[in-house]
Amino acid sequence: MLQQTQVSRVLDFYERFLSRFPDLKSLASAREGAVLAQWRGLGYYARARNLHKLARRVVREEAAVYGGVLPTSPRELRALPGVGAYTAGAVASFAYEQRAALVDTNVARVLKRCFAPALHPKRARDLARLWLIADAVLPRSGRAGWTHNQALMELGALVCTARVKHCGKCPVRTLCRSADGELG
DNA sequence: CTCCGGATCC
DNA sequence: GGATCTGGAG
Question: Domains of chain A (ranges plus CATH)?
Answer without folding.
Answer: 1-68 (1.10.340.30), 105-175 (1.10.1670.10)
